[in-house]
Amino acid sequence: MMSEKLISRRGAFSLLGLAVAAGFAVPTTMLTTSDAEAQAQPSPAAQPMPGMQHDMQHGMQQGQEQQTGGKKRRQARHTGRTKRREARHNARTGRREARHTGRTMRREARGKSDKLYMKGDTTKQK
């Protein structure tokens, strides 16, 4: 009779780890096909026929058209970014100039009474 033996959790995990390590150690190509089957045999259909040259060139032209379309979109994004950056810069400069002129006008409006405040002789006690 066979005796049933319980396996501990630690033993189960170690067996699982060994199985995973063995799975990584054995390359998948050894498991699926042999070298002789994996080598491709040159077939006469693989070489292009003279009439197919036109189709291949047409496909290449389509690829170039897609590439130029992508280039146009990229340039459009770039010019958009540049315009937005310039608009932000101009707005910032306008706000800075407005603050400067406002400060200047307020200083002039206060007049000479505040200018006397900074004089040292009038505020010191003797």
Please give a handful of descriptors for the protein shown:
mainly alpha, 126 residues
Helix content: over 70%
Number of helices: 6
Q: Main beta sheet: strand number and arrangement?
A: none
Order of helices and strands: HHHHHH
* Global shape: elongated
Strand percent estimate: under 5%
Distance between the termini: 119 Å
Structure description:
The protein is mainly alpha-helical and 126 residues long. The chain has a domain at 81-110. 75% of the residues lie in helices and 0% in strands. It is built from six helices and no strands. It has helices at 9-25, 28-32, 35-38, 52-110, 113-117, 120-123.
Question: Briefly, what is this?
Answer:
With 126 residues, the protein is mostly helical.
Describe the protein's topology:
Layout: H1 9-25, H2 28-32, H3 35-38, H4 52-110, H5 113-117, H6 120-123
